[in-house]
Design brief:
With 508 residues, the protein is mainly alpha-helical. 54% of the residues lie in helices and 6% in strands.
């Protein structure tokens, strides 16, 4: 999208109130603009004045007239203020690895700007304005994905963003990547000069972790919608009983996610002819867990992700800088709001939930392809002519491989600690690792659910002329818009990719 095209959405106003994950998504992915409210600008100015006064005082205040981290005992003179703020940005830009996706960087910049706009960081309003200029013009800093230990904020990634504000580092717009200074020259802008504490304010914060978490939650919402649709589709594609989804069963368990999943699955099956067709004289007594206990497993994932949402949404209204400025009290207080442990544990939990969303999906794929269920009129592997054709045999292999990787990625990063800064920063969260792994897990889980939708839509062809419920048939129609029936063997990979894109685009 060209950043200069007319915006399709109302601007996101930074007025001190919490951002929503939807606002983060709109700015990060759809290039909605963001602007600083007049009230927020007034609060930012007031906090800046407190910092300016303190910077000239003889008393040491961390980050204003001292060094950083284990060097905090070193005093800095007034005439060195600009130099030390510039130096902290340069020295902390030590990231490595592949660059973060643009949407993650844009989301990080928005959350950083929103935090600064709450008037407790002591930055100049022009510093926030410059961040918003980068978003508006889609001049996005190139930020390596590794380097944050998620405790004294996301120091390394945020430093690479801050480099752009002082005219250094690299940025990209569309497919063009070049030195930041070239973009500034093109726009007739000069790099900003960081005042006392501003470098620290730009670097100290949980903004990368929160940004990744917010985008992952948006993606997880879409993924769960598809997973619930896939569950309902699988029930009739596998000729399973609807009985285990009876609300009376789930009310006795009192687990909210489980109740919600059962309700929504049954809603999509209303009007099914398939369940009527095997209601009598069916020798099967119970379905496998992947069908019978789908509400319990997927509902647990739903509940876990709902808890993760509460943590991320709190962080989207937070100030995670250090030290913090309290203009009403003319006070500057040092603390540990930059510590990422709340987000680290939440993002670890998200990955665990995704293992089970994908895992039970893969088991249903295995079940329908295996040919074990002789009461279901499907062919083995859904092959048009088994033996001559292999059908979707290897699609299940792919789902299994994705599930294995999800299981590996679910190992919690937050349980490990490596001290930094000569030991003064002795307990780190590793939340940025949790965040990077969560992005990978979302993609893998989406592919597994896409495979289920592909396979079960084909299994529905074997149930014809019988029809499933209205909701299920709607899902089948959506899949068929991008993937035709399997008449003979063809590579499944493009079909899986198209359905995964459909899920990501909120098409299921």
């Amino acid at each position: 999208m060209n950043a200069r095209q007319a915006h399709k959405h109302d601007p996101v106003v930074l007025d001190g109130s919490p951002l929503s994950t939807e606002e983060v998504r709109l700015v990060a992915r759809e290039h909605a603009s963001a602007e600083l409210s007049d009230g927020a600008r007034t609060r930012v100015v007031a906090a800046r004045q407190v910092v300016a006064d303190a910077a000239e005082d003889v008393d040491p205040v961390y980050g204003l007239n001292t060094g950083f981290g284990s060097l905090s005992k070193v005093r800095v003179t007034v005439d060195q203020v600009h130099e030390i703020q510039r130096n902290i940005v340069r020295s902390h830009a030590a990231g490595v690895g592949d660059p973060l996706p643009k949407d993650v960087v844009r989301a990080t910049m928005l959350i950083l700007a929103a935090s600064l706009a709450r008037g407790h960081s002591g930055v100049e309003p022009s510093t926030i304005d410059r961040l918003l200029w980068h978003l508006e013009e889609d001049v996005v800093p190139v930020v390596p994905s590794r380097g944050s230990v998620g405790a004294s904020g996301d120091l390394a990634p945020l430093s690479h963003i801050a480099l752009a504000l002082i005219g250094e580092g690299e940025c990209r717009r569309n497919e063009q990547k070049q030195p930041t200074r070239a973009f500034l020259d093109e726009a007739g802008l000069e790099p900003i000069t960081l005042e006392a504490k501003e470098g620290l304010a730009l670097l100290n914060g949980t903004h990368l972790m929160a940004a990744t978490g917010a985008l992952c939650l948006e993606d997880a919402h879409d993924l769960l919608e598809a997973a619930i649709a896939g569950t309902a589709l699988s029930l009739d594609a596998c000729r399973a009983s609807h009985g285990p989804f009876d609300p009376r069963i789930h009310e006795l368990r009192t687990q909210h996610g489980q109740i919600e999943v059962a309700r929504r699955v049954l809603e999509q099956l209303v009007g099914s002819q398939i369940v009527e067709d095997h209601q009598e004289d069916d020798p099967r007594v119970q379905d496998p867990y992947c069908l019978r206990a789908a509400s319990q497993v997927l509902g647990a994932g739903l509940d876990a992700i709902a808890w993760v949402r509460t943590i991320i949404e709190r962080e989207l209204g937070a100030v995670t800088d250090n030290p913090l400025v309290f203009p009403a009290d003319q006070a500057i207080l040092s603390g540990g709001n930059f510590h990422g442990m709340p987000l680290a544990i939440a993002l670890d939990t998200l990955r665990i939930a995704l293992v089970h969303v994908a895992g039970i999906s893969e088991r249903r794929v295995f079940w329908v392809l295996s040919g074990h269920d002789t009461e279901n009129p499907v062919t083995t592997y859904l092959a048009p002519e088994p033996g001559l054709h292999s059908g979707y045999m290897i699609a299940q292999y792919t789902a299994a491989a994705c599930c294995n990787e999800l299981q590996t990625l679910a190992n919690p990063a937050s349980v490990a600690n490596v001290p930094t800064s000569a030991g003064i920063e002795d307990y780190n969260s590793m939340g940025a690792t949790s965040a990077n792994l969560a992005r990978q897990s979302i993609r893998l889980a989406r592919d597994v659910v896409a495979i289920e939708l592909l396979v079960m839509t084909e299994a529905m062809e074997h149930q014809r002329p019988l029809r499933s419920g209205t909701g299920v048939e709607s899902t089948v129609a959506k899949v068929r818009e991008v993937v035709p029936p399997l008449k003979q063997d063809r590579p499944p990979a493009p079909d899986i990719a198209r359905i995964a894109e459909l899920i990501a685009a909120r098409g299921i």
